[in-house]
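DRTGG domain-containing protein
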Amino acid sequence: MTKHEQILSHIESLSIGQKISVRKIAKDLNVSEGTAYRAIKDADKIGLVATIDRVGTVRIEKKSREEIEQLTYNEIVKIVEGEVLGGKNGLTKTLNKFAIGAMELNDVVKYLSSNTLLIVGNREDVQLAALKKGSAVLITGGFSTTQEIIKYANEHDLPVLSSQYDTYLVANLINKAMYNQKIRKEILLVEDIVKPVNDNSIIFDDMTLFDYKEKADMTGHSRFPVVDKSRHLVGIVTSKEIIKMHEDDKIVHFMTRNPLKAQLNTTVASCAHMMIWEGIELLPVIDVSKKLIGVITRKDVLTAMQLIGRQPQVGEKINDQVAKYMTITNDNIKVQVTPLLTSQYGTLSKGVFVALIEESIRYEIRKLKKLEVMIESLNIIYIKAVQIESEIEIHYDMLDVGRNFAKMEVTMTNESQNVAKALIICQLIN
């Protein structure tokens, strides 16, 4: 186990709410502060720790996909520009609903339970009753509270917050934030579709062709990720690589090294793009320490994207819409002009023009250098009106290309007539 993995394992073993510091981790595990810092950053990425204002970095319970869509009390503090009076260790908890304490005490408690936030003024009896029901408390009007209530909140990790705003404004701010969370577009990640691997679905680098055939017969698969003894991903082997092998040849000498791979927080859309352009069927999934934890197939990716595409609450970005009207072949790139792609004057919308370039330029760069591309500057020379239902062809002229950049001119034509032209400078990313 590497030092990085030891630190992540140590952090995972800590109790929820425990404070974490670079210096303490470095001292406890006898590693450099730089190594500790990088590991804590990775722990933050995978949801093991969180940095809370005026508290510091603490160990938190990793959220499920459902909980990610819910607000935490720490986020409520920022929304209402409030302060934390007590229960700081409970700031990473989530709330499902909020209640307003404008009724008699006996009526208020009927609406209280765990994962509820009570919004109330300077009513200490109601505040304490809410805490005893497992609810957090937000005190409006800038009021504080008693030491008894703060002590109870700290003992039970139930946040007690205070805001200068009145009850009506606070309720509106929180309601708006909860609504925005609910209508937010769902982004599908690799962690949602990854298939875990076992010894039957991987090949170790010291295995032979005989071992490969044995596993292929057992599983019915022809593609396997290749790992070393520590289960770090070192390559991939398919039926294409074994053609020239003999029974006793080692896989390590014939496998494809440095294969394309994904992590749990990689988007499924990014994987789809990668797998389709590169023509690959199997994508290994690694963790932050580069250990193999699973695989996804092209079928998994396309099925997941079709499923989310059928959800009525999911919107589409302009690039998603534009891509539907593009046809890319080895020889050319064509676009069908629909009303959706034009302005009220019949010209290509500038946003659509840029989206067309973004979607098609990747194809041109990948043909040339097999790299990702990020547009650095785009100067539109002119755009002419185009007829709805007509067809546009996109052509690229490479003006200059280096190791990390490319300078290109893009021309769009309709029936051999130029309708748009632009000059692009882009970065090439490995």
